[in-house]
Design goal:
Keywords: Membrane, Transmembrane, Transmembrane helix. It is built from 6 helices and no strands. It is mainly α and about 220 residues long.
Amino acid sequence: MKALLPFIKLFKHQWLMMFTGLILSITTLMAGIGLLSLSGWFLSAAAVAGLTAATAMMFNYFTPAGGVRFFSIVRTASRYGERLATHEATFKLLTQLRTWAWRKLMPLSASNMQGIRQGDLLNRLVADIDTLDHLYLRLITPMAASLLMLGALYLFVSWFDAHLALILCGSLLSVWLVLPWVFYLLGRKPGVDLLESKRVYRVQVLEIVQGLAEI
């Protein structure tokens, strides 16, 4: 975690777009929950109302149908905006990371970089930095959004039953804490092997290209 601190400090330059992406991600989740809940109730209520002619005539189809359309539009629009905001922040972070990497590499003399193959340097500039952009896009934003939604869910359910809200949100919080570590442990070795394979591939390709000039 300490190794990531210098890179996390770069996030403060893009805090506005990152915060916007987080808010839009939460909006997307809320709209999805609202759409799922309302559409489920609408289908069930319409089925019950259709059992008799009297209830079918009295049932209001228009308001729930409008709510379903509203949540659908909000979810689509917020998802699109969230993609724009998070990827805009990610691209700017990649620019800053590559600039930071070049500033660290340029002062180094040839003696300091002795023993480092050019393919390894290429891998550091491309693969390692590209991996870091997933830190915000694939980890920080989903984890933060799900945690905030968990708090909102607790407040909503506790309005009906505090004991049920505690059990439900406590279980979900346990899953939120445990699952990332489970997937981390399961994916650590394949991830390291994949990065090593990419490094070897880039080194070999660069050596072949450099060898063509001599041929």
